[in-house]
Amino acid sequence: SDLLFTGCELTASTKSYTFQVDEEDDSDHILALSVVCLTDGAKDECNVVEVVGRNHENQEIAVPVANLKLSCQPLLSLDNFKLQPPVTFRLAAGSGPVHLAGWHQIVHREDASFEEDDDLSEEEEEEELAPIMPAKK
Question: What does the DSSP 8-state code read for residue 136?
C-alpha cells in the first residue's frame, strides 16, 4: 500500500475542494482527515467546514466537521477521520483561510491477501507470547 500526505486550503474565493480518484483504479482508497485549522489572515468569525459525500442511496449529504473561530478554537484535530473518495470539503460559513491536512492511503488489491494469512485466533496469539517474568531484585 502507498501512503501519501495530502491537504488543501479553503478560502472566500475557493470555497470547496473535491478529492477524487480515477474510477478505473481497482485499488481501495482511504482519505483520512487529521487537522483542520485557520491560517494566516483569518478573521475572528465562525468558519464552518463541511464534508460532502454520498449516502448508501447515492444521495448527496453534507455533514459539518469543524466550526473554527480564531479567538476560541483556531485548530481541530480529527484523529484521522476516515472518508471514502470521492469527497468534497466545503467552507459553508466564514471566509477562511482554513487549511485541511491528512493522508491518502492506497491499498492495492493484491496487498489485501496478507490479511488472510495473518488470521490467528486469540488462543494462538496467547500461546506465541512469551510469559512475563517478575523483575529480578
Answer: P
Element (H, E) at 127: helix 122-128
Grid cell listed for 78:
480529527
pLDDT digits (tens, 9 = 90+) for 14-61: 999 999 887 777 788 889 999 999 999 999 999 999 999 888 898 999
- Of the candidates 106, 95, 127, 133, the residue with the CA atom closest to the CA atom of residue 13: 95
The identity of residue 51, as a single letter, is V
95-120: buried (b, 16+ CB within 10 Å) or exposed (e) per residue? Answer: bbbbbbebbbbeeeeeeeeeeeeeee
Determine the Cα–Cα distance for residues 19 and 41; give it in Å rounded to an integer: 25
Per-residue pLDDT of 106-125, as tens digits, reads 888 764 444 444 555 555 54
Cα(55)–Cα(14) distance, rounded to whole angstroms? 25
